[in-house]
């Protein structure tokens, strides 16, 4: 199937380029660490239930750092015009989107794998890994899908660095709220039925935005 | 092999390509000349499916674009102003990546073949960043040859190539002619480029103002004369049109 071979080629190239430069990952990690440290020192957490307050901090760190990686995703392709190389080839634009989105998902996930233990240590959070990891994966999938599409839109504008957060954060509100609520539910060990509504919202968000982004990507990258 | 009919392209209010009708037969090598901003790159980008025409029709290898762009792309080899290479990857990795995008079988053998054709077989493991502009251009040429295109669209392909490397493009074009492929390339360097061409076009202000076979201009110096005459004639024609337009306005 050429579609999957091409998708794999794009994904492999993204990972290979990042492995050589480590630009995106290192920037994301440093930023996430800074966010956690600043929040840790800025707020007096004595008497605060960290299981309620912490998820907000965690998702601020994830989303603010993730946007750095997403911004680089298409900006670097536009800068060296290598996007034209992909567009010249008989590649389904959906394969380009999925390749890019999956690479972004892995980069953000790598940042989260390092950030989460730091969050546990700095905020002294009692961790419930089992449902939490699943919720983080779901939140990250939606974040990467929407972010990849909007990164492609932002990269074609003159104010690309400013444009991506301006476009992305309003669209991310439902995802971020649902992810924070699910993280709170998991850390507080609430019964799943208490936050199932947020789970359903996040699942629907992921599916809807993944499909929309997949179908509309062609019109975003082509003239 | 390449056909356009009343092709037009606008960028905002600017008409970059006007009423362009053109047919290039298989095996024909066509040079595209003209001053900066004449519309050469726009025409090549539309034919390469990187830009959409505003009006008119175009077909590449018998496939209408942009409707059949996905099928047409498999038969187009395009070299533009940028090399489209990833600096961090080696030459072989860059070419392997493009071979995968074109879903080529036996990619490694084909990469070696085109690398030999453009003289980069000893630089395959070098990182693209470490290559000179000339060598990067050779890799760009190799990339555009990988999938054995039927239509070659080259925008200033001599960029970065030294005099001694010029034969590379002549050899590539000769091979394309033998394989029955069509070649359309733009260049400002008549001396180097016209040696390989069967036919030359001159564009000005988005229009083709001259279309002549080699018999009409014979060599680079002959074409330089035609180029100067045709541009002067087109300029005079434009000035006359402007005068006539301002005259009729005054009468009103």
Explain how this protein is built.
The complex is a heterodimer of chains A (223) and B (252). Chain A has 223 residues and is an all-alpha fold. Chain A has one domain (2-221). Helix content of chain A is 85%, strand content 0%. In chain A, helix 6 packs antiparallel against helix 7 and helix 6 (129-155) runs parallel beside helix 8 (196-221). The longest helix of chain A is centred in the middle third of the chain and has 31 residues, at 93-123. Chain A is globular. The two termini of chain A are 27 Å apart. The model of chain A has no long low-confidence stretch (mean pLDDT 91). With 252 residues, chain B is an alpha/beta fold. Chain B has one domain (2-75, 149-251): Rossmann fold (3-Layer(aba) Sandwich), CATH 3.40.50.300. Chain B has nine helices and ten strands. Chain B has helices at 40-47, 69-73, 91-101, 107-118, 133-145, 166-178, 190-193, 214-217, 220-251; strands spanning 2-11, 14-24, 29-33, 55-60, 63-65, 76-79, 151-155, 182-186, 199-204, 207-213. In chain B, the strands form two sheets. Chain B has a six-stranded mixed sheet, with helices on both faces. In chain B, a hairpin with a 2-residue loop joins strand 9 (199-204) and strand 10. In chain B, helix 4 (107-118) packs across helix 5. The A-B interface holds A 2, 5-6, 8-10, 12-13, 16-17, 20-21, 80-82, 84-92, 222-223 and B 48-52, 70-71, 73-74, 76, 78, 80-82, 84-89, 93, 97-98, 100-103, 143.
């Amino acid at each position: 199937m050429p579609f999957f071979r091409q998708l794999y080629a794009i994904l492999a190239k993204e990972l290979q380029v990042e492995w050589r430069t480590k630009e995106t990952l290192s920037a994301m990690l440093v930023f996430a660490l800074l966010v956690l440290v600043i929040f840790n020192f800025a707020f007096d957490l004595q008497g605060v239930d960290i299981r309620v307050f912490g998820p907000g901090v965690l998702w601020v760190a994830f989303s603010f750092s993730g946007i750095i990686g997403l911004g680089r995703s298409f900006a670097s392709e536009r800068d060296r015009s290598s996007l034209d190389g992909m567009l010249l080839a008989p590649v389904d634009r959906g394969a380009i989107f999925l390749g890019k989105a999956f690479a972004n998902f892995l980069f953000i996930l790598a940042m989260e794998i390092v950030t989460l233990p730091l969050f546990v240590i700095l905020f002294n959070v009692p961790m419930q890994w089992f449902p939490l990891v699943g919720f983080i994966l779901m939140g990250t999938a939606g974040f990467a899908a929407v972010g990849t599409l909007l990164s492609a839109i932002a990269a074609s504008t003159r104010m690309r660095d400013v444009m991506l957060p301006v476009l992305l954060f309003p669209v991310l509100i439902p995802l971020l709220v649902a992810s924070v609520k699910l993280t709170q539910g998991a850390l507080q060990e609430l019964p799943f039925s208490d936050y199932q509504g947020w789970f359903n919202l996040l699942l629907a968000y992921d599916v809807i935005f993944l499909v929309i982004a997949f179908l509309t990507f062609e019109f975003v990258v082509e003239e | 092999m390449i056909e356009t009919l009343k092709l037009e392209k606008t960028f905002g209010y600017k008409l970059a390509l006007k009423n362009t009708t053109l047919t290039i037969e298989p095996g024909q090598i066509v040079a595209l000349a003209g001053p900066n901003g004449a519309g050469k790159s726009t025409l090549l980008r539309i034919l390469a499916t990187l830009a959409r025409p505003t009006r008119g029709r175009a077909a590449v290898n018998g496939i209408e674009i942009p409707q059949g762009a996905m099928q047409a792309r498999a038969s187009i080899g395009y070299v533009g102003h940028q090399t489209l290479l990833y600096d961090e990857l080696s030459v072989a990795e860059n070419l392997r990546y493009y071979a995968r995008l074109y879903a080529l079988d036996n990619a490694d053998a084909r990469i070696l073949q085109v690398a030999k054709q453009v003289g980069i077989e000893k630089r395959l493991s070098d990182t693209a960043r470490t290559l000179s502009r000339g060598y990067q251009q050779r890799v760009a040429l190799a990339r555009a040859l990988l999938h054995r295109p039927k239509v070659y669209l080259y925008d200033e392909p001599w960029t970065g190539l030294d005099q001694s490397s010029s034969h590379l493009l002549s050899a590539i074009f000769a091979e394309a002619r033998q394989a029955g492929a069509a070649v359309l390339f733009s260049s400002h360097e008549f001396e180097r480029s016209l040696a390989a061409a069967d036919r030359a076009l001159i564009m000005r202000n988005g229009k083709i103002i001259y279309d002549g076979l080699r018999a009409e201009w014979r060599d680079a110096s002959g074409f330089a004369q035609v180029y100067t005459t045709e541009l002067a004639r087109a300029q005079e024609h434009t000035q006359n049109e402007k005068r006539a337009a301002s005259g009729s306005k005054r009468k009103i």
